[in-house]
Amino acid sequence: MKHARDAVNAVLLAAGVPYNNGEVKMKFAFLIHRAHTTALAKGWHENAVPSPERALSLCALAMAEIDEMWLDLDGRGRRTRIVWVEGHKPGGPLIELADVLIRVADMYGFFKWNPRDVTLEAWLAPGLPSFATHQLPRAILWLHSIIVRRFIEPIRITGEPDPGALAVLVAAAEVVAAALARIFNHPMTLVEALNVKLAYNDGRPYRHGGKLA
Is 1 helix (H, G, I), strand (E, B) or coil? Predict the structure, then answer.
């Protein structure tokens, strides 16, 4: 229960709202609002309409952030750090992990999905793993599998993710963030990474980087 509550606090604090003992859906709603408001302001949903295809494309973008996280862990020669800043842009596996949650929160905002079924009990699925250094590839695959099983497969059938999918993903992200902090002996938490990336996104130009989505 403590781990689940800590993860909920992290999402709430990332939106700049003091923690209280209110309903979990309100806490998630703050992150959804923050991520989606910025995405709208930066033009990322320009001319987009809600559809299963749009939902699946946004899931693919979330999975791409997971892949970026792995590149930062294994392919860019900086395995001694989980966060860095190049110019004014924050980077590193923990920042990419935060981006996964920001992408998914934006998707909830775009489709106006209500995380009404997200409760603390949804976090208490048995067998949440703890990852050692040599198991980090498993952690990456685990995050991918949650996107596939809890989001992509249900969206193909019903047009929406599983009830509680957001809670499961955030709980998983918190587990992976804790593993990164332990393995790299780094003090930054997932909530701090969310705060850093949300603030950075607020200051980026309209449709920055020439990207399509």
Answer: coil
Interatomic CA distance for residues 68 and 120, integer angstroms: 29
CA dist., res. 15 & res. 33, Å (int): 9
Exposure of 76 in the CB half-sphere (CA atoms within 13 A): 16
Rounded Cα gap, residues 131 and 207, in angstroms: 36
pLDDT in tens, 82-117: 777 777 788 889 999 999 999 999 999 999 997 754
Please tell me the least confidently modeled range out of 32-41, 55-64, 162-171. 162-171
19 pLDDT exceeds 60? no
Partners of 144 in the β-ladder: none
Phi first, then psi: what are they for 6, rounded to 5°? Answer: -60, -40
Which helix (DSSP H) or strand (DSSP E) does residue 91 occupy? strand 89-91
pLDDT for res 129: 62
Cα 122 to Cα 126, 165, 166, distances in angstroms = 10, 9, 10
Is pLDDT of 155 > 80?
Answer: yes
CA 121, CA 192: separation in Å to the nearest integer?
Answer: 25
Q: How confident is the model at residue 8 (pLDDT cuts 50, 70, 90)?
A: very low
Determine the Cα–Cα distance for residues 35 and 129; give it in Å rounded to an integer: 28
Distance CA 13, CA 127 (A): 26
The residue among 172, 57, 163 whose CA lies nearest residue 124 is 172
